[in-house]
Amino acid sequence: MGPVGGPVITVAAVVFRDAEGRMLTVRKNGTEKFMLPGGKLEPGESAAQAAVREVAEELGVRLRLEELALLGEFDSDAANEPGHLLRSTVFTWTGEVSPDAAAEIAELRWASLAEIVEGAQFAPLTREHVVPALQPS
Predict the structure, then answer these.
(1) What is the pLDDT of residues 61-90, one digit of tens each?
(2) How far apart are CA 12 and CA 99, in angstroms?
(3) Are 91 and 74 in contact (CB under 8 A)?
(4) Which sequence spans correspond to the domains of the chain?
(5) Secondary structure (H, E, C), the chain
(6) Can you give the pTM of this predicted structure?
(7) Which CATH class is domain 8-134?
């Protein structure tokens, strides 16, 4: 269940890291928060299929389903839809990537995990769930 009476948005996202360990974040047109590349599932789509499709649309990066590794499933407040619960399936992908901002992406930003944790400009999912999940326990 989400917030009382609050709608649930179901999304899939992918974590990309560069050689310095920074994470790729994106800001969509008309929004202020940086978040992971990804988006809402279409009817009949698995989370992995949605992640692959969204990354191709948003970044021009072609992934294969078998290259994705499940990081986890997380519930958080939606960054851009107040009162909505975001239910996310987050994958990691290992390799070099050269993304281009496409579709609804206004800006790309590579950020260190420390920058993300400290930065209010990053989405709650990324800050509160994904970064801790990436940290070795």
Answers:
(1) 999 999 999 999 999 999 888 899 999 999
(2) 18
(3) no
(4) 8-134
(5) CCCCCCCEEEEEEEEEECCCCCEEEEEECCCCCEECCEEECCCCCCHHHHHHHHHHHHHCCCCCHHHCEEEEEEEEECCCCCCCEEEEEEEEECCCCCCCCCCCEEEEEEECHHHHHHCCCECHHHHHHHHHHHCCC
(6) 0.92
(7) alpha beta
